[in-house]
Design brief:
heterodimer; A: about 700 residues; mainly alpha; 26 helices; 6 strands; about 75% helix; B: about 475 residues; two-stranded antiparallel sheet; 2 strands
Chain lengths: ~700, ~475
């Protein structure tokens, strides 16, 4: 019996390779294969649950990759595995419909499954080096998904994505080096134990490196710059995966770093908390500005990441009382995955029909599309945090954790944080309303009919499943809490069970957020960002020319640094040659010797000697007669001399000329083939003799 | 009798090179067969010599203390000879196909085989003097390979190569003179020659060390003695591959290791602070190689500068003067050999099949040369140092060495350069696979992967790259013997 964990890891790998070759033969079998294998993996993941609920599962294979492969699944990891399994299953199903009109379908499936395999690896590995391996593999594999369209835009996005991902990976590796140096182990649990004896400064350095490394994937400010364009460039199912799961690998890494490796270090927790606040505000703000559906949802991901980061920070800040915050974080990650999948799938469905993402074109498209409208609405209500939908549950938990932190520390900081939490929630409501109203409420005469033939039933199935899940979690949140809390503890934090979600305070705060959000939408978005002109809606994006971190800071910074380095090193590159040239020139000047005498002679001869037999043609196919070559050389030399004569340096040149002639004469007379090899041997012999003399006379 | 068996890998290539040089002895149609037989046979001899040597010392000529040519097979020599022997086989098969369009095959094989003998001499030599002689002979025997095209550019590059090499030789001689006057003995002994540390004039020791290091550093393409290497790119691709992977640059590395750990010894160098003078140069080498590589549009030139940077890693590992650093350096010597030879082979097959030499020309080519480009991708991932490939293993060891030396800066440099490595290698893969060619239509797929003789070595090498990444213990265990011997 092969271990289940290994099976879960290997099936996607095998499918990746298989689907490429099967796809060449038959597309239908390939699609079927992908759906079956993702569902198989998902079933395996579900079957893991009884074991996980009892305690952590571990499995290791030695003698691979130098350090061995060490897999581990506890409740946190299981939750991640579960959402990846479900997300991939649905995304594959959606892909079979979505990707049919794209090029390179086989390639798409291959990399889709490879990304899956690596992602599962990230969530399962306990050895930090394994984790790094899978993390890098995931970045590389998902790159192929990002640039799937192969146009200029997606290539730009791809370069941004790949370079950020690689840089993040290398910074992570740096952290791993330090961690290994401090603790002498690569097991995450081992590092966590070893960290207790390490000085605080070192802990901060290590934590910073890890958080930067993971934070790039998690789109933490200011490392989020790759996110909007990448999401906009990739095909919809890939974007859904990027947002729903790959983002979570980064967040998972941050959780591991803060809560496991650093044992909930308070300072680092505050840092993460602070970044979370920035993320919420910035992401929300830019999401309101955008007019491309995918970009709106992308910035929304950034904003939602902020909420999750708040949760992670709160766990560390609350310490032993962090159970509720951790639960909220995990719930948030799960919920976010579900509604983001739903939203991106719906956006993908629109794109399938219209091939367009800009609100300026697609506004009013969904007015009469009842089913799509319903699905999208569920996603929107989920992300807004309306009671009865899943977003509400996790937001409530995080909010509760903030209040608890405020009680615990009596710091005004948390009052401000709570304010930002409200504002962030309201922004979410605003941009989602903007999106929903624009597409599904406003009336556009260009669009009528249902386009049923373009969107098959099978493409709707994933949407339906997701909608059901979202509503189910929204109504019965405790079912999830019970599942997560079944093992009692996650990462040494006690998980509370049977939480009252629908309390008076929670409902009130939710209503406040909704009202505030509606207010922003009505009085800011509708007034400033949308213009009505002859029955047409025009959406503005004033942020388009604003200061962008990537385009106005990183890019110029890196290019100028690169240019500076290049100039310096180009100089280094030719340093020696230049020095030698200068020395030769000086010595020529002083000694009045023609430096070219020897080499010129030698190389002319060389060409004659080597070429005489075999090389009758040069590269261009011209036939060269050796004698003419020599003659040409001679003539050009003479011309040179003539030119120099004109310049008025007759005497010196003449003497040089005489010297030249004499030397040629001597060489000719003694018939020495002064080819390079013989010359070198001669030189070597000379050097050896000289050194002998040295040694024996010393 | 046993001695002769041991010394066979040194002699056989020379005899066969002489035989090949005459078209009367080896007829044209048997040429490739003969070459194949020689490389295989010689590999067998290498295995034989390495297994049955029993650490013997084989004197060839002993005139006096100084002029003493002898061979002595130890673990380091075995490592190097195995690597060279194996890669020589692959390269010769690759050449059988590739050299068809370069012409002048006979001349090529003469020097190709001759160089083999020189490399064996380098790896088996028992003292510095023997090493030095073979080292110079190596320069001479590779020179005709570099200028193979006989074009003006080739000759110019050849000249550069020769001049640089002999400048290096001068430095080596200078250092050797001082060393011999101090120690009176230049035999390789693990951990350094005994008694050399007791010499009172440390400055003289330091001068000899630095001079020799720079001298051997020429072949290892250390800044500022590197520019022969990109220039030598005019050579036919198998030659460049070999030059980069084993023959020339790695013999430089080998000599540096020998000199640092078997003549002076790490303890003495630490005492002299010899590494402090060289590290800036090495760091410059690493960063410079990577950055200049980014500017190159010519594929082979890009790889050449990449080699410079990677050799910098190895030299850095040697200069870390601790077990992990040396292990990393030796690992990277092996791994880089496999990686670089793969990269060159692929570039060579691109040129061979399509005549394209520049990166801007290869858009969309990966769809037609699927296997080659996958091999290129694997090799570049490995060179960047992403697990599970062998490049990561050596980078890991080097990183541990840096931690042991308490130099976080080294790791930063390594990782920075790794990022640049990705920046100059991945665009090739991306252009090949993901960019659309100028006149490309869907379904329009030509089979442009090179013929089997070229393809099989490439595939074998990329499999080895991954296998060595998954199971690095094989090499690590081999190297551990060296480490124990030296420290």
């Amino acid at each position: 019996m092969i271990n289940k964990l290994v099976l879960i890891l290997t099936i996607p790998f095998l499918t990746a390779g298989l689907s490429y070759y099967v796809g060449k033969k038959s597309e239908r079998i390939r699609d079927l294969l992908n759906v079956i294998s993702t569902s198989l993996v998902f079933i395996l993941i579900i079957m893991l649950y009884p074991e996980v609920s009892k305690g952590t599962i571990e499995y290791s294979i030695h003698n691979i990759m130098g350090t061995g492969l060490h897999l581990k699944v506890d409740m946190l990891r299981y939750a991640m595995l579960f959402i990846s399994g479900l997300a991939w299953f649905l995304a594959t199903m959606f892909s079979t419909q979505y990707i049919t009109r794209y090029r390179h379908r086989n390639r798409y499936y291959m990399f889709f499954m490879l990304t899956y395999a690596f992602t599962l690896g990230v969530f399962m590995s306990d050895n930090i080096l394994n984790l790094f391996t899978f993390f890098e593999g995931m970045s590389l594999a998902s790159y192929a998904l990002v640039i799937h369209d192969e146009d200029e835009f997606s290539h730009d996005a791809g370069i941004s994505y790949l370079s950020m991902a690689l840089a993040g990976g290398l910074i992570l590796l740096m952290g791993i080096f330090l961690a290994f140096d401090y603790t002498n182990t690569l097991e995450i649990s081992g590092i966590a134990k070893g960290m207790e004896n390490v000085s605080l400064a070192k802990q901060y350095i290590l934590g910073t490196l890890f958080i930067i490394g993971f934070g790039i994937k998690a789109s933490m400010f200011p490392l989020h710059t790759w996110l909007p364009q990448t999401y906009a460039a990739a095909p919809a199912p890939a974007t859904a995966i990027l947002s729903a799961i790959l983002l979570k690998t980064g967040l998972f890494g941050v959780i591991i770093t803060i809560l496991e490796i650093l044992n909930g270090n308070v300072v680092m927790s505050y840092v993460v908390f602070g970044i979370g606040l920035i993320n919420i505000l910035l992401g929300g703000f830019f999401a309101i500005m955008q007019r491309n559906i995918k970009r709106i949802i992308a910035y929304s991901s950034m904003s939602q990441t902020g909420f999750i980061l708040l949760g992670i920070g709160l766990v560390g800040i609350l310490g032993n009382h962090g159970g509720i915050a951790l639960l909220g974080t995990i719930m948030y990650m799960i919920n976010h995955a579900f509604f983001k999948l739903l939203l991106f799938f719906s956006a993908g469905a629109i794109y399938m029909i219209l091939k367009e993402m800009s609100l300026n074109v697609i506004w009013g498209f969904g007015k009469h599309k009842k089913k799509l409208k319903m699905f999208f609405l569920i996603g929107v209500l989920g992300i807004m945090g309306v009671p009865g939908f899943n977003g509400y549950t996790s937001k409530t938990l995080i909010h509760e954790a903030i209040i608890e932190a405020q009680h615990l520390t009596h710091s005004n900081f948390f009052n401000i944080a709570e304010m930002i939490f409200y504002i962030g929630g309201a922004m979410t409501v605003a941009y989602m309303l903007k999106l929903f109203v624009a597409i599904f409420i406003d009336e556009n005469k260009n669009y009528y009919g249902q386009y049923k033939n373009r969107l098959k039933k099978r493409a709707q199935l994933p949407l339906m499943i997701l909608s059901v899940i979202i509503v189910f979690i929204g109504i019965f949140p405790n079912s999830i809490v019970r599942v997560l809390g079944s093992s009692g503890k996650i990462l040494s934090y006690n998980i509370p069970v049977d939480i009252k979600f629908f309390t008076y305070e929670a409902l009130i705060s939710s209503v406040i957020i909704l009202l505030f959000g509606g207010f922003i939408y009505l009085f800011i978005v509708r007034r400033v960002l949308i213009i009505k002109k002859d029955d047409q809606l025009i959406f503005l994006n004033p942020s388009y020319n604003w200061f962008g971190l990537e385009k106005d800071l990183y890019y110029p910074l890196f290019t100028s640094a690169f240019k500076g380095f290049s100039i310096f090193f180009k100089f280094m590159d030719v340093l020696l040659i230049n020095i030698v040239n200068i020395i030769i020139k000086i010595s020529t000047f002083i000694g009045n010797i023609d430096k070219v005498i020897l080499p010129k002679l030698e190389w002319d001869k060389m060409i004659v000697v080597v070429d005489s037999k075999k090389m009758n043609t040069d590269i261009n196919g011209k036939i060269i007669k050796t004698s003419t070559l020599a003659k040409e050389k001679y003539i050009s030399e003479k011309e040179n001399i003539k030119n120099k004569l004109v310049e008025g340096k007759e005497k010196i040149i003449e003497t040089n000329e005489v010297k030249n002639q004499r030397l040629k004469h001597i060489v000719g007379n003694y018939n020495i083939k002064l080819s390079s090899i013989t010359f070198s041997v001669f030189l070597m012999g000379f050097v050896i003799v000289i050194s002998y003399l040295f040694i024996f006379t010393i | 009798m046993k001695n002769i068996l041991v010394i066979l890998p040194l002699i056989l290539p020379i005899i066969s090179a002489v035989a090949i040089s005459s078209s009367k002895i080896i007829k044209d149609k048997y040429l490739k067969l003969f070459v194949a037989a020689v490389v295989f046979l010689n590999f067998a001899f290498i295995v034989n010599a390495n297994i049955f040597s029993d650490l013997e010392i084989i004197h060839v000529i002993t005139v006096n203390e100084f002029l003493d040519i002898y061979f002595h097979i130890d673990q380091l020599g075995k490592l190097f000879s195995y690597m060279a022997g194996f890669l020589w086989i692959l390269t010769s098969f690759y050449s059988f196909e590739y050299m068809k369009h370069e012409g002048k095959e006979r001349r090529y094989y003469v020097f190709f085989i001759l160089t083999f003998a020189m490399i064996m001499g380098i790896s088996y030599s028992g003292n510095l003097f023997t090493l030095y002689i073979y080292y110079e002979l190596l320069t001479l025997s590779t020179f005709p390979l570099v200028i193979h095209a006989d074009s003006k550019e080739a000759l110019q590059s050849g000249k550069k190569y020769i001049i640089y090499s002999f400048v290096g030789a001068t430095f080596i001689i200078f250092g050797m003179m001082i060393l011999f006057s101090i120690s009176g003995n230049m035999n390789f002994i693990g951990g350094g020659i005994k008694g050399i540390g007791e010499y009172s004039d440390k400055t003289l020791l330091l001068i000899s060390f630095l001079s020799m290091f720079l001298g051997f550093g020429v072949k290892a393409a250390m800044v500022p003695f590197h520019s022969w290497l990109p220039a030598a790119m005019v050579a036919p691709t198998p030659v460049s591959a070999l030059l980069h992977a084993v023959a020339v640059v790695k013999s430089g590395i080998f000599a540096l290791t020998r000199m640092t750990y078997y003549i002076y010894g790490p303890m003495l160098i630490k005492e002299l602070n010899g590494d402090d003078y060289l590290i800036p140069l090495v760091i410059a080498t690493i960063v410079m190689g990577s950055i200049i590589a980014l500017h190159q549009d010519h594929l082979k030139k890009r790889l050449a500068y990449s080699t410079i940077s990677q050799l910098g890693y190895i030299i850095l590992g040697i200069l870390m003067l601790n077990p992990n650093g040396l292990a990393g350096a030796l690992m990277h010597m092996i791994n880089h050999a496999f990686i670089k030879i793969t990269l060159f082979f692929v570039v060579g097959s691109i040129t061979y099949m399509t005549g394209k030499k520049y990166i801007h020309e290869i858009n969309g080519l990966g769809k037609h040369m699927n296997k080659s480009f996958i091999a290129f991708f694997i090799a570049s991932v490995s060179l960047v140092g992403i697990p599970p490939t062998n490049g990561f293993v050596s980078k890991w060891m080097l990183g541990l060495g840096a931690m042991e030396a308490n130099q976080v800066l080294y790791i930063v440099i390594l990782l920075f350069s790794a990022f640049l490595t990705a920046a100059y290698l991945f665009p090739v893969v991306i252009a090949g696979f993901f960019r659309r060619g100028d006149d490309e239509k869907e379904g329009d797929r030509k089979e442009l992967d090179p013929p089997r003789l070229m393809m099989v070595p490439i595939i074998m090498l990329s499999v080895i790259i991954i296998l060595l990444g998954l199971f690095p213990n094989l090499v690590i265990n081999f190297i551990d013997v060296i480490i124990v011997d030296v420290f």
